[in-house]
Amino acid sequence: MARSTKNYAKKLKQLCELEGFEEMEMLELATYDSVAHAICINPECTYTTMMEPDQDAGWCEECNEGSVVSCLVLAGML
User: Domain locations in the chain?
Assistant: First the structure.
């Protein structure tokens, strides 16, 4: 699925704020775990969950679409 990544930095910052982590702390935890913090990338949605670290189209329970992206993908690490 082709998708614009221009709001990824904004969504990563929002995810960190919502989950109470500093960015580097969140990314480090996700690097060494089988799950990672993830957020819906739709502009008005703030749904967060834990998903696979390489997830770029996870299901959003609020939007009912595959719009949830992991923090590692948002940061451009995967």
Answer: 8-74
